[in-house]
Amino acid sequence: SHSYLNHGRTELRGTRNSRNSEGLQVRPVAPWESNGSARWRKHAHLPCTIHVFRNGDLLSPPFPLPLPKSSPLHWDAVLAVLTEKADLRSGAVNKLCRLDGTQVSGGEELVNGDYYVAVGNEEYKKLPYVELLVPRDSACRTLWY
User: Most buried residue, 8, 42, 73, 91, by most Cβ within 10 Å?
Assistant: First the structure.
């Protein structure tokens, strides 16, 4: 069933051996190929939902934040929606961090289904958000038992 691969492979985007900045082979992607593959996931402008914790808050579960398809995503608008939804004691959400504390600098870095932490003026607090607030069956991780 893979005979279609050689079919639409003729030089659509420059030469087919051209490489992009990450050194990945660039080739046209059929719509049915693009869904499951993590490699393409980042680049697909599909509606995406992230799950957001409040910085330092281990009582409130994460809230889902659906992101619009619009490209590029206006980061100020994302922060404004986060501010409204997170309702942080410290006020406005100034940044969004990954669970390891690194800051996300734009909408194109967000990964569908991932967890993030909304942070205001204070420092990011590294806490076991997922472990404490996400029911075990919905966190896709291997558990030891």
Answer: 73
